[in-house]
Design a protein that fits this description.
Strand content: under 5%
Radius of gyration: 14 Å
Structural class: mainly alpha
Mean pLDDT: 94
Number of helices: 8
Strand order of the largest sheet: 1-2
Order of helices and strands: HEEHHHHHHH
């Protein structure tokens, strides 16, 4: 899909009544790589930094070969890095697994600093 404005994209909110819609989240992740929408999506995602279901979905995008090379994976890595550290500690094994990826943009953290608090 193509969205010119935040108003267009926000009609496809990826969470409703506490339930995440993976298809709509995919669109948000892809669009987060678009300069004209990234700030709006960043602000939206900031409200869910402690959401365990969101964390699970973001890791799924990174680990599922179906999305290999998609901007959704770049977006997922970006937002995993912004999740609450306590939540990331609960998902330690998944974080370590995605950090092993040979493709740098698929790794949420680009240095070893995360190991200090993990």
């Amino acid at each position: 899909m193509y969205f010119r404005t935040w108003d267009e994209l926000s009609k496809f909110c990826p969470i409703e009544n506490g339930i995440w819609n993976k298809e709509f989240l995919y669109e948000y992740l892809v669009q987060s790589c678009c300069i004209r929408l990234s700030d709006f999506i960043d602000q939206f995602m900031e409200n869910y930094q402690n959401d365990e279901t969101l964390a699970k979905l973001l890791f799924e995008f990174l680990l599922d070969d179906q999305y290999d090379g998609s901007d959704s994976q770049m977006g997922a890595a970006k937002y995993i890095a912004r999740l609450d550290r306590g939540l990331l500690k609960k998902n330690r094994e998944l974080l370590l697994k995605v950090q092993e990826n040979e493709v740098e943009w698929k790794r949420p953290f680009h240095d070893e600093e995360y190991l200090e608090w993990l």
